Amino acid sequence: MGIRVAVAGASGYAGGELLRLIAGHPELDLVAATAHSQAGQPVAAVHPQLTGLDLVFGRTEPAVLADADLVFLALPHGESAALAAALPDGVRLVDLGADHRLTDAAAWTRYYGGSHAGAWTYGLPELPGQRAAIAGATRVAATGCYAVATILALAPLLAAGVAAPHDVVVVAASGTSGAGRSAKPHLLGSEVMGDLSPYKVGAHQHVPEIKQASGATGLSFTPVLAPMPRGILATVTALPVGDAPADPRAVLAEAYAETPFVHLLPEGQWPHTAATLGGNSCHLQTTVDVDSGRLIVVSAIDNLGKGAAGQAVQCANLMLGLPETTGLSGHGIAP
């Protein structure tokens, strides 16, 4: 018998990816998967890629989840806090939603609305000190997808003092799975194919999370919907500090030299979203703009992998005393 885990909100895209990763994890036993409207349906009827997983969705209720050693909360923003409060203190929790990411209650109200549920340990192991913090926590808030792609590109440059925190510009394109599984007219195939469109320009909810975790003080963030199912490509630029631009490559190489999932690509090789699909990796490349002198870092992740389910399993491994790579691959699938 392995470690008993459950997934609340398992009928969505991130929930389905969690089920796939748990099914292949050597130390985790899936004991419950819950949903709202899909309760009572076989898992494989909702996630046909999981044919052979003999499980029926239960209702998202504390009693269904309380016997697990660890519960993943893959619920819409604003729904995790109430369920978490109703679960026993001895159950470890990893929240893939935004409810417990922000330390600033005013920022929560401004970007999400409603009451602030309080901050949990932030679930990005690659940040300084966070690996140990996550390992010692019973409540962990996993990152936002855009946030992790941006933070991994930016935080080391700010920490090293080579980039100015007050003038950071990010343009990031994401696949449609980042918007969730609910039917929305603007996400129909005929609307998305052959089109790129910005959204939530100047007011995206991941802005305060990125600033909180990276140390940026001024951030312009433009998200773009791309005609692909999954993946994020983020282009992050910042002003250099001092008269001569520092070498951002050396800073990133040192920051991620010992990390299993963040890879600084060889010079001249730029990240592709396809290269990260299905894996828990982040690919980075960097240069200095020859005209403006701005530091540029391009980051690619799978938004359902390192941006959601993979990151959550990585955190769960640390919380459970397992090697953080257990059940996870840093390699993508191709073609």
From TrEMBL:
Major site of localization recorded for this protein: cytoplasm
Pathway: Amino-acid biosynthesis; L-arginine biosynthesis; N(2)-acetyl-L-ornithine from L-glutamate: step 3/4
Catalyzed reactions: N-acetyl-L-glutamate 5-semialdehyde + phosphate + NADP(+) = N-acetyl-L-glutamyl 5-phosphate + NADPH + H(+)
This protein's record includes keyword Methyltransferase: no
UniProt entry tagged with the keyword Oxidoreductase: yes
Record's function text: Catalyzes the NADPH-dependent reduction of N-acetyl-5-glutamyl phosphate to yield N-acetyl-L-glutamate 5-semialdehyde.
Family recorded in the similarity comment: Belongs to the NAGSA dehydrogenase family. Type 1 subfamily.
Protein name: N-acetyl-gamma-glutamyl-phosphate reductase
Originating species: Plantactinospora mayteni
Gene: argC_2
